[in-house]
Amino acid sequence: MKHRQQTGFLFDAPVHGAGEPQLVEVAPAAAPAPRAVPPLLQTTAVVATAAPTVVVPTRELWAAVQLPREAALPALQTLALRALLFTPRVSLEPPDALLLELRGSLGLFGGLKSLLGDLQAQFVMAQSIALAPTPLAALALARSGKSCCIVDATQLGSRLAALPLQSLRWPDDAIARLSSMGVRTIGAALRLPRAGFARRFGPALLDSLDRLVARRSDPRLAFRAPERFRMHCEPDFELTGQAGVMRSIAPLLATLADFLRERQCGISVLLLRLVHRDHAATRCLLRLAHPESAAQQFALLLEAQLQHLVLPAPVRRCELRSGPLLADAQLSAALWKPGEHGGGATAQMPAFLDRLRARLGSQAVHGICVKPAHRPEASSLPSEPATTHSVRHLPQCPPWAAARRPLWLLPEPQQLALLHDNRSARAYPSHQGERLTLQSGPERLETGWWDEAGIERDYYIARDAGGARLWIFRQIEPPRHWFLHGIFC
Q: Which residue, of 78, 387, 424, 432, has the greatest Cβ tally within 10 A?
């Protein structure tokens, strides 16, 4: 089969579209020309058995990124975070290699050739990058300095045969014993009798060979990224104003944005803690209406909050801490322009709420949560503002109750004056000097008798002279005063 060079990688087969690996049952390789078997393995108890003819079904494609040997574990973890941009299945191979399972990412990056180019651009410090259907095969190729791509499992044995045994990172004593017997390559090790090899070198090395050529499955421990962000900076000099604080935390916000993008997540809580020399730390807490991941939005909201803060002393340390990570549902643009048929409200509402709360304070802007209670003043509670992307499961109230309850309730019922009709010798409730016309009612509410806040009222829907609809009630017990309790929108 002819090979062709593409973007620095050696392909073993034409790659079209997503470049799906073709993994089938592998027949044992043809027996090589007769050669002397090492005396150590020529015993009467050892029978040269053929390799298994069926491989473990797999549709995986592993990439091994080989780094310089001096790479430390913290640097490896940092690169693993970068690898999460390509796939959630990342595994560490300390001290100097990473494994990425890319089969599920091929379609997301425009196919195999495009993905390989992105890998090379992201890991420019790598010594070699190799792809193979098994993780051990990819590691062996990368550790041998071969930047190649194997997508067909049936070619693993032939393509790996010439690699030295040192690429498997076996124990030195085992490699020395095999070398003394003339076995110095992976192909020579694969041709040894399995029973004798396992008896003399242990089942672990035989299992390693089986996992290398897909005779056995090879599960890997996935790398788990930190669940929260925490970072700090100490300026060269103490900060005395808001502008200096914002300049100092700008790199932290950029790192936070990268942290969230790598995990495809957002946060709804962000804490900025400013440490002083002789005073308690100043806290600046952001609570967002929608999970956010953009550094520009964080900077805008923090700047608005810092304008209302008075620093008790110069700042010597800035700390940034995030809340728990949340799924970040990206907002698409509206079909209509802002202001046309309600266009733009979906994408603008979370940012608008966040800016209001940053400027006015978290307690000044809130939502309303329904509470199952008969007393109107106790049937709702303030809550976090809800947007179209933060759905709340609220108790369902009967349709008739929703139609007869106003959205705007007064903090305290306001007593209404009475207008007397001399002709009928009756008194009618009035509002702002105008007589109210009763439209429906009464709706009697008698509840709360078990505590000190019990009510006994007859509610009516009334209309004033200007056409506004009001929700009023009359006490059942004397002196039977009239009160205004709510206004319909």
A: 387
Q: Are 293 and 355 in contact (CB under 8 A)?
A: no
Give 354: exposed, middle or buried? Use CB within 10 Å, 0-12, 13-18, 19+. Answer: buried
Higher pLDDT, residue 140 or 11: 140
Residue with tokens 């105008």: 434
**How far is it, in rounded angstroms, from Cα 63 to Cα 351?**
40
Burial class (CB in 10 A: 0-12, 13-18, 19+), 83: buried
265 - beta bridge partners? Answer: 327
pLDDT at 339 over 60: no
With vertex at residue 463, the alpha carbon angle to CA 461 and CA 465, rounded to the nearest 5 degrees, is 165
Work out the average pLDDT over 242-270: 89
Are 289 and 270 in contact, with CB atoms under 8 Å apart?
Answer: no
Q: Which residues of 403-422 are buried (b: 16+ CB within 10 A; e: fewer)?
A: eebbeebeeebeebeeeeee
Contact 292, 298 (CB under 8 A): yes
Comparing C-alpha atoms, which of 335, 244, 260 is closest to residue 297?
Answer: 260
Among residues 205, 191, 64, which one has the least CA distance to residue 133? 64
> Cα separation of 222 and 488, whole Å?
57
CATH fold of 230-327 reads Dna Ligase; domain 1 (3.30.1490)
The tokens for 205 are 């090395």
Beta strand 9-11 pairing with 148-149: parallel
Q: What is the pLDDT of residue 440?
A: 84
Please give the C-alpha separations between residue 70 and each of 74, 76, 84, 154, in angstroms, as whole numbers: 12, 11, 22, 35
The secondary structure of residue 442, as a DSSP letter, is E
What are the domain boundaries of the chain? 4-25+46-212, 230-327, 399-487
Query: What gap in Å lies between CA 358 and CA 303, rounded to an integer?
Result: 9
Question: 4-25+46-212 belongs to which CATH class?
Answer: alpha beta
Residue 50: C-alpha distances to residues 7, 29, 155, 197, 288 (Å): 38, 9, 18, 13, 64
Domain 4-25+46-212 identical in fold to domain 230-327: no
φ and ψ at residue 245, rounded to 5 degrees = -65, -45
Chain segment 87-104, per-residue pLDDT in tens: 989 999 988 899 999 998
